[in-house]
Amino acid sequence: MFVTDTQKIGIGLTGFGVTFLLLGVLLFFDKGLLAMGNILFLAGLGLLIGLEKTFKFFFQQHKIKGTTCFLGGIFMVLIGWPIVGMAVEIFGFVNLFGNFFPVAVSFMRRLPFVGHVLNFPIVKSIVDKISGQTKLPV
């Protein structure tokens, strides 16, 4: 599969966005880092999958509640309410990207160290409840 230069830039922007978001949360909800992380994440997502596909993903009829919360949370962070904004944004993120959690969990279970940790009995029961799927449909 060929990755274009635009997609490479999108991967970088998305990675920087996630990094800035994590740093913003770790540094007691720093408004500047959270705002920069949100902007970089959205710009990177748009470049990674394309603007048309990004708009189609966010503005599907059954995902409108998640989109509203996600973008509303970003707006709250930008106007200076970082804690409330991040809570609303996380709720929207889970509603938007919740269908990808089982795929991500099954991928992480195949990784060398992470897979062993995710298969501990206590961790496995918690992760299975969060992901909503115990086995792959294959």
Layout of helices and strands:
Layout: H1 5-26, H2 31-49, H3 51-58, H4 64-79, H5 82-97, H6 101-108, H7 112-118, H8 121-131
* Count of beta strands: 0
- Helix/strand order: HHHHHHHH
Instruction: Give the strand content.
Output: under 5%
Specify the overall morphology.
globular
- For this structure, the quaternary state is single chain
State the helix count: 8
Structural class: mainly alpha
How much is the radius of gyration in Å?
17 Å
Please give the share of residues in helix: over 70%
Largest sheet: none
Which segments are poorly predicted (pLDDT under 50) over 5 or more consecutive residues? none
Average of per-residue pLDDT values? 92
Spatial separation of the terminal alpha carbons: 24 Å
In short:
The chain has helices at 5-26, 31-49, 51-58, 64-79, 82-97, 101-108, 112-118, 121-131.
What does this structure look like?
The protein has 138 residues and is mainly α. Helix content is 78%, strand content 0%. It has helices spanning 5-26, 31-49, 51-58, 64-79, 82-97, 101-108, 112-118, 121-131. The radius of gyration is 17 Å and the shape is globular. It starts with a helix and ends in a 7-residue tail after the last helix. The mean pLDDT is 92.
